[in-house]
Amino acid sequence: MADALPTPDAPLPDDPAVLQGMIRELLAALAAERHDRQQLENRLDLLRKRPAKDRWGSGGYGGRGRCSAGAWELRVGGALGLGPDVGQ
After folding, report:
1. Residue 74: CB partners within 8 Å, gap ≥ 6?
2. Per-residue pLDDT averaged across 22-51, rounded?
3. In the predicted model, what is the mean pLDDT of residues 56-74?
4. pLDDT at 78 over 80
């Protein structure tokens, strides 16, 4: 596409060959955008179809996942300065 895009209210060229070239550029840009959009939609579909356990760890969403509840309490307690007796 051209380096500097004309403003929407700028007059169009009178030469039909120039107008045809501009239309071809616009159609090529539109095709590229549609292709990119289709690729993104395909990736989103694949991600939506993956089982939850692949996204959230071995226990799935709502499960223990990567660490046990006790380990989680220790990490949260330590981060908050509450010590290891959090949750007891």
Report:
1. 84, 86
2. 93
3. 54
4. no
Ramachandran sector of residue 20 (left: φ over 0; alpha: ψ -120 to 50; beta: rest): alpha
CA distance 32 to 5: 18
Residue 52: what pLDDT? 64
Measured CA to CA, the distance from residue 22 to residue 8 in angstroms comes to 14
* pLDDT the model gives residue 50: 80
**CA 5/CA 88 separation, integer angstroms:** 66
Whole-prediction pTM value?
Answer: 0.50
Domains of the chain by residue range: 1-49, 57-88
Return the closest-CA partner of residue 73 out of 63, 61, 86, 88: 86
H or E element that contains 52:
helix 52-56
- Report the run of H or E that residue 75 belongs to, with start and end: helix 69-80
How many of the other CB atoms lie within 10 Å of CB of 56?
14
